[in-house]
Design brief:
The chain is mostly helical. It has a domain of 107 residues: Arc Repressor Mutant, subunit A (Orthogonal Bundle). It is 71% helix and 8% strand. It has eight helices and three strands; from the N terminus they run H-H-H-H-E-H-H-E-E-H-H. Strands 1-3-2 form a three-stranded antiparallel sheet. Helix 3 crosses helix 7 and helix 7 crosses helix 8. The two termini are 36 Å apart.
Length: 153
């Protein structure tokens, strides 16, 4: 038996159904689609809303710190920032040290976020109602703990 055939033969038939990564990604896709649809009138996607929210919350933030806050790598962050920079919702500024690059909210970004917040509140309320507040709280706690544990490794 060839190596590939042996690996396939050894694969648990329930591997996808029991795979943590598969199931988390499946849930993430479903939730992201729900938020994307709700936020569509604002012109923002869920990921863009999150980035704008973090920048709004932290003020001008270094690229490395923003990547860490979003649990992403700098390359992916740069790719995701590009449309927000091109639309003038965010801008890149020099930090105190010229080598430091800061991401800052523009007035257009603040307006876009203000328009999106009521849409976000509406979908957030639906998600909490659908899951139930106790399950939602527990889910957030579990996800935050999992993120902390796996980012530390």
């Amino acid at each position: 038996m060839r190596t590939t055939e042996r690996i396939v033969a050894d694969l648990d038939p329930m591997a996808a159904a029991n795979c943590t990564c598969f199931n988390m990604r499946k849930a993430t896709r479903a939730v992201t689609q729900l938020y994307d649809k709700a936020l569509r009138p604002s012109g923002l996607r869920a990921t863009q809303f999150s980035m704008l929210s973090v920048v709004q919350d932290r003020g001008p933030v270094g690229i490395t710190d923003l990547a860490k806050a979003l649990a992403t790598d700098r390359t992916t962050l740069s790719r995701n920032l590009k449309p927000l920079l091109e639309r003038g919702l965010l801008e890149i500024a020099d930090g105190e040290d010229r080598r430091e690059r800061l991401i800052a909210m523009t007035s257009n970004g603040g307006e876009a976020l203000s328009q999106a917040v009521p849409l976000w509140h509406e979908v957030q309320t639906r998600v909490i109602k659908n899951l139930g507040r106790d399950r939602w709280t527990s889910l957030l706690d579990d996800l935050n703990e999992a993120s902390d544990r796996f980012q530390a490794t």
